[in-house]
Give the backbone structure.
Amino acid sequence: MTPDLSAAVWRKSTKSGNNGGCVEVAFVDQIVAIRDSKDPTGPVLAFEAGSWAAFVAEIRNGERLTY
C-alpha cells in the first residue's frame, strides 16, 4: 500500500549545505518518508516508524548495516 503523502510536511537537516545533496524526511501517521531534495516530485522511500527507529539506532551505535 502506498501511503498518502499529500499532507506531508517535508524537512531537511539544518546542517545541510546548499550543495543540493540532501534528503528530506516527513513523518505521516506511522510512516517515515524519505526523498531527494533535488527531486521533490520523484520517488519516495517509505518505512514503518519502528523499522526506521531501529535503522537509526543501529547507525548511532556504529553497527555495520547488512541490509
Q: What stands out?
A: Strands lie at 23-28, 31-36, 44-48.
